Amino acid sequence: MSALLKSIRSPSSETLPNIRGPRSTQPPSPVCISKNFFGKQFLKSRSELNIDALPDIKLRCFRNLDATPLYHQITFTERGLPQLQPSTTSNSSNGKIRAYAANTHQGLTRLYNEDKAVIKLRVKNPTNQNRALWPNCSFFGLYDGHGGKACSNFLRDNLHHYIINDPLFPDCPKQAILRGFSRAESDFLKLAKENNERAGSCALVVLIVGKICYVANVGDSRAIISGSKGQQAISITRDHKPNDPEEQARIKQNGGSIYCNVNSVNSIYRVSPGQLSVSRTIGDIDAKDPIYGGNPDVLIATPEVKYFKIKKHYDFIMMGCDGIFDVMSTQDVVSTAWNSNPLSNDLTPSFCRNAVEGIVIESMKRRSSDNLTAIMIAFEHGDQFRSKSKCA
């Protein structure tokens, strides 16, 4: 399988300790829900508003679902673990996608959930493009915020618009993704400067165009793929952490530095300026703007974009925030997904639901100290898919 994944290398994080470390335990400031981040200048129309389908998961393909409060009280099961909200699952398929499911939880120690997600099962032809042919397209985004919800909210509401409405999409998805991330970074930093906002976010996007899957990553959320009914487990993304050799070299070459905080559990590597335990983010203006002592070349927002053709022996993609991969390896996650469905190996919506809930629960059992979000995208294999990207 590895030969079929273009530009995918084995992530160095698989052999490194889990070092993300907890963020601030204080709830985000009220400015994080300022209407400036949700105004009409960012949302095209009322019909495009994201609707709460889970706590802190936004899904445009569902309607008439109740909104959830900003903070959530944890209820516990008889096993002593927090009770999960019902997962959101697909009720239809699209192109190469047979089913999906998503679940999120604030975790064992957090009083709030800064993880956000958006799912667009069917990406329609934007009104500004006059195209006779439009491929089957689906968009999945996972945004792991820190320092408040402002940045992850902004990405949830805007990043897919930036990419899908780019003139290069869908002919050149990779370039549209790069341009969309760049625009998101620029627009959010402008708002952050106007509103004295210090929030930031990691971003993980899976965009499927016809038979081709594009994966873009900024930060340490991870996308992995299961192949041959779980016999293969491959990390598609590389965790952007300060102790990754490539990230270390880039940071030092551009005038940054790396230091290590040692506690009783593990060693947490951080990058300066910023003092963050990730080396790529969107937002975090105080680490990037020279006015605040930042360096825009150290903590960058440039995504790594990888793409591959979806083959018949590919089972599913699992997207997860670092709270999951702090305590579970890529192989652990794939094994847990299959072990959560002992009576069936058919990739139905119920299979996806059991898998994401099993992974979130297993992360809690292993005492993850972060928010927990898992999204599973199960593949369908047939001959009905005709579109193909003209360029990478």
From TrEMBL:
<dbReference type="GO" id="GO:0016020">
    <property type="term" value="C:membrane"/>
</dbReference>
<dbReference type="GO" id="GO:0004722">
    <property type="term" value="F:protein serine/threonine phosphatase activity"/>
</dbReference>
<feature type="domain" description="PPM-type phosphatase">
    <location>
        <begin position="99"/>
        <end position="379"/>
    </location>
</feature>
<keyword id="KW-0378">Hydrolase</keyword>
<protein>
    <recommendedName>
        <fullName>protein-serine/threonine phosphatase</fullName>
        <ecNumber>3.1.3.16</ecNumber>
    </recommendedName>
</protein>
<keyword id="KW-0464">Manganese</keyword>
<keyword id="KW-0479">Metal-binding</keyword>
<keyword id="KW-0472">Membrane</keyword>
<dbReference type="InterPro" id="IPR036457">
    <property type="entry name" value="PPM-type-like_dom_sf"/>
</dbReference>
<keyword id="KW-0904">Protein phosphatase</keyword>
<dbReference type="GO" id="GO:0046872">
    <property type="term" value="F:metal ion binding"/>
</dbReference>
<dbReference type="Pfam" id="PF00481">
    <property type="entry name" value="PP2C"/>
</dbReference>
<feature type="region of interest" description="Disordered">
    <location>
        <begin position="1"/>
        <end position="30"/>
    </location>
</feature>
<dbReference type="InterPro" id="IPR000222">
    <property type="entry name" value="PP2C_BS"/>
</dbReference>
<dbReference type="InterPro" id="IPR001932">
    <property type="entry name" value="PPM-type_phosphatase-like_dom"/>
</dbReference>
<dbReference type="InterPro" id="IPR015655">
    <property type="entry name" value="PP2C"/>
</dbReference>
<comment type="similarity">
    <text>Belongs to the PP2C family.</text>
</comment>
<keyword id="KW-0460">Magnesium</keyword>
